[in-house]
Design a protein that fits this description.
By secondary structure, this protein is of the alpha+beta class. The chain has helices at 5-11, 17-22, 40-46, 129-134; strands at 26-29, 35-38, 50-54, 60-64, 71-75, 81-85, 94-99, 106-114, 117-121.
């Protein structure tokens, strides 16, 4: 059976590790509109949870987050935690959080229109990571 990039990284062969880690690099737009390369180092840095508020959004119950990240908690308004569900219609005090299968970018669906929300989340993650890890080495 052919090895995937993930198999090769897991085995950590010193001859192939640098080129296998290089495959993880992904260019994604940041909130400031600056293009930043995300790779293995960014994945390690993203493990640190952080609080982030997105404001000035168009008034809508569905908000697509601006970067691939793991959402641990959601508040709107700030200080009012919402119960997180997945794949359903949120009721009062709930938010549905679902991730794009290809990019990993979360979509948040609120019970009503919002223009600001705060998340407790990981940092930005490379959007192509799932496809790269599954690719044949």
């Amino acid at each position: 059976m052919a090895e995937t990039t993930q198999d090769r990284i897991d085995k950590c062969n010193i001859q192939t590790l640098p080129q296998d880690l290089q495959k993880l690099r992904d260019v994604a737009a940041t909130a400031a509109g600056v293009r930043t390369t995300l790779g293995f180092g960014a994945m390690l840095a993203a493990m640190r949870p952080r609080n982030r508020t997105r404001s000035g959004l168009s008034s809508n119950a569905t908000q697509v987050h601006d970067e691939a990240a793991i959402i641990y908690a959601v508040q709107t308004p700030v200080g009012t935690p919402l119960a997180m569900i997945s794949g359903g219609s949120p009721g009062a005090g709930e938010v549905s959080v679902d991730y794009d299968a290809t990019t990993g970018v979360p979509t948040l669906i609120f019970n009503g229109a919002v223009t600001t929300y705060t998340v407790h989340s990981s940092g930005p993650l490379p959007q192509s990571i799932a496809a790269v890890m599954a690719s044949l080495a």
